[in-house]
């Protein structure tokens, strides 16, 4: 949350200093973790880890076992992993939503500019068409010159009255 400029800063005194972290760096880390958690590689690694854990604690000599059946420590480890994975995935999704929102706004602004440009060009083309219709074309000039030549030829052929 950004501080408001119209209110004084509230000073809080604590016995222990508050830890400071960079939200952008933490967000990037959460995105990398979320991307890894959503891969087949993670599923293979996690499956291998669980199989190895259960195999070790079920098949190893009793003195080497550290988490006997019902594998309570394994359950604790998986619960801990899930409790951290869920918020990290949500944080990564929120960051992606923010990026999508910014991209949507930029696309919308770009589309509005393109629409305005298209409307402007359409008006310009319509104006040019109107202007061209008022300008004498080459064919029109040729027909007019031919008509004038024909009239001159007719005058030359007609007997003069003088």
UniProtKB/TrEMBL annotation:
The chain crosses the membrane at residues 42-59, 71-91. InterPro entries: DUF1003. Keywords: Membrane, Transmembrane, Transmembrane helix. The keyword Glycosyltransferase does not apply. This is Putative membrane protein. The lineage of its organism: Bacteria, Bacillati, Actinomycetota, Actinomycetes, Streptosporangiales.
